[in-house]
Amino acid sequence: MRIITGTILIGLALSISACGLMTKPEAGSPNKPMTTKSGEPVNQATPVNMIAEFDDIPVPVELSRKNEESSVYEAPGLAVGVIVYEGYYKSASISKFFRAEMPKYEWQFINAFSEGNRYTLTFLKANRSCSISIEEGSLSTRVVIRVGPTAGN
Question: Are 72 and 81 contacting, i.e. CB atoms less than 8 angstroms apart?
């Protein structure tokens, strides 16, 4: 009985100490190569995914799309929608990613608001706007991308 109790206590101590070592990796910052969850570098030939419905909005390859929470409306000459992603990455790192990548696709940075581990970024392009909300949780970071027309369009 003592051996079993001792083994359980050692296992519990090891798992608690391992949780303290867990940190969220940085997602594709301009000065660091993007890495996978295991810390391996991502092939830089394809550093971003593109949203299928919006071919001018890059997304870090490490984020997973949540189709059940996403919705897009498309008509000739118009696509609007809300796309939800999740991943195990720091919200500040994902914010830096979008601020560096969106201008490469001719999106103009309008403003950013941050509060703790929450970020909201706004971009403008021709007759469309894009709002990106990033919220870091204890287990994953949630990214919500909203695309819609601007006033008068």
Answer: yes
**Number of residues that this document lists for the chain:** 153
C-alpha 104/C-alpha 99 separation (Å) is: 10
Task: Judge whether 18 lies within some domain.
Answer: no
Q: How far is CA 16 from CA 19, 26, 37, 58, 73, in A?
A: 5, 23, 20, 37, 46
Residue 116 inside a domain? The answer is yes
- Total structural domains within the chain: 1
Residue pLDDT, tens place only, 85-130: 999 889 999 999 999 999 999 999 999 999 999 999 999 998 899 9
Domain that holds residue 75: 25-149
In a domain, 11, yes or no: no
Closest-CA residue to 129 (of 98, 105, 107, 96)? 107
Q: Which of 77, 75, 50 is nearest to 61 (CA)?
A: 50
pTM of the shown model? 0.70
The 10s digit of each residue's pLDDT in 28-85 is: 434 444 443 344 444 444 357 777 788 899 999 889 999 999 999 999 888 899 999 9
